[in-house]
Amino acid sequence: MDIKSIKKLTLTINTVILLLVFGLAGFFHLCGARYLVLFSFPTALVYIFGYYFITHERLDVYVRSVYIWLTLYMSVTTIGLGYKLGFHLYCLSMIPIIFYTEYMAEKLGRRKINAVVVSFLIVLAYLLSTGYAAFSGPVYEIDNSIAGIFWITNSAIVLFFLIIYSGIMLKMVGESEKRLIILAHTDRLTGLFNRHYMMSELTEATKADGDRFVAMADIDFFKRINDQYGHNAGDFVLRTISELMQQMCPDGKVSRWGGEEFLILSSGSAKEGVKLMEKIRTTIESHDFTFEGKKIPVTITAGVSDYVKGTSVDEWINEADENLYFGKRNGRNRVVLKRDTSV
């Protein structure tokens, strides 16, 4: 969840709470609880100022002010009206939200709060206010039927917030896991699959039915490109080739195998693999690799190997690798299927 989404959600919740404060002020007036009516005015100001903090991305200030005042509000209303109305239940919603907020602050690089300490203080306020109301009785006596209605209402509000925030947290954790999986499976420079991921895919491919092939490709004289044009130019060439390969292999999986080497896994026969790699080779050879005004000549050599049942992954890759280096030793800029022939 990005900062824009967080602001939108927080503004909505702030508005809902502000309306509740006004509604409760009316209820306090009907109950004759004058000091609770007066207490509602600074409470409303907290949430009115909250709009400023939210829109100016001072969510840390907003959250701290809300925690402090909501804890105070819960304590004062519980002492004034008793625990039978359920105002103390708001502690149950505050504590998980505190940990949610700490998580969000870490993800956004903002100042965090000590969720454990704050939770302890809220629990302490909860015990003191409910304990006082239990032993001394509330300041204002409320009809039991009205108290029951408020218990149900406050319980429903607390459960609503718990469900909403639990759902958001679960969604965020899922999104974080997806991002971590993507990071673990992809090469940072090129965005292609990395060697670790491709090894698992190759293992699965050996268990599948049907024809399939691997192609090992290597950029010709890549060290010369780095030395002559600079490492930034080399990175540019790697990224461009990666994009071209991905565009031309929509049904296959392309990985950066290491350095300037690429491995492609796809369904089809070895001859189909040669045809595909030849198309990639000629595309790269004719592509305009211009970096900082300098045109860089780029070619690749590739070795292709089809899968033979019973062959291990290492043997399968090794055959493609040997075909590649046969091509390297015999002129480069070619696709090799068998080491005694070339296309």
How does this structure look, described?
It is built from 11 helices and 7 strands. The strands form 2 sheets. It has a 5-stranded mixed sheet, with helices on both faces. The model has no long low-confidence stretch (mean pLDDT 87). The protein has 2 domains: 3-184, no CATH class; 195-336, Alpha-Beta Plaits. It is α+β, with helices and mostly antiparallel strands and 343 residues long. 66% of the residues lie in helices and 10% in strands. The two termini are 51 Å apart. α2 packs antiparallel against α3 (59-81), α3 (59-81) packs antiparallel against α4 (90-108) and α9 (231-248) packs across α10 (270-286).
Distance between the termini: 51 Å
Q: How many whole angstroms does the radius of gyration measure?
A: 33 Å
Number of domains: 2
Which strand order do you get reading across the main beta sheet?
A: 2-3-1-6-7
Helix content: 55-70%
State mean pLDDT (0 to 100 scale): 87
What portion of residues belong to β-strands? 5-15%
Q: Detail the poorly predicted runs.
A: none
**Number of E-type strands:** 7
Shape: elongated
Q: What structural class do the secondary elements suggest?
A: alpha+beta
Summarize the main sheet: 5 strands, mixed
The SSE order reads: HHHHHHHEHHEEHEEEHE
Number of helical segments?
11
Offer a concise description of the structure.
With 343 residues, the chain is α+β, with helices and mostly antiparallel strands. Helix content is 66%, strand content 10%.
